[in-house]
Amino acid sequence: MNITFEKSAEILLVSLEGRISSVNAGQAEADLMAQVARGESDMLLDMSRLDYISSAGLRVVLLLAKKLKQSGGVLVLHGMQPQIREVFDISGFLNILTVTDTREQALVHFSHLG
């Protein structure tokens, strides 16, 4: 799994690539939470290159969403492949997280920054 970070205005763009499983979920959590600890509060997760996510990976996304909400921030996910979207749907996460199809749709959710 590979995570890359890019800052655009006030939003941290996070690209997830590969697989998030119990093997690497701890490292993914550490990498993401380190960004929150540095003061990042608005994150856009690009999931277009994520091929697999386990329950451990779902937990990381949920923890990140909770942490950002506590700091008054926003988490938006976009670009899920069908198999990833199905996992989020079955787990009920589509009902509690902000998920869009495109980056443009996702950016609308950060309008409070303007």
UniProtKB/TrEMBL annotation:
The lineage of its organism: Bacteria, Pseudomonadati, Pseudomonadota, Betaproteobacteria, Burkholderiales. CDD domains: STAS_anti-anti-sigma_factors (cd07043). InterPro entries: Anti-sigma_ant, STAS_dom, STAS_dom_sf. Gene3D superfamilies: STAS domain (3.30.750.24). Coiled coil: none annotated. This is Anti-sigma factor antagonist. Belongs to the anti-sigma-factor antagonist family. Residues 1-110 form the STAS domain. It comes from the Bacteria. It comes from Herbaspirillum huttiense subsp. lycopersici. PROSITE patterns: STAS.
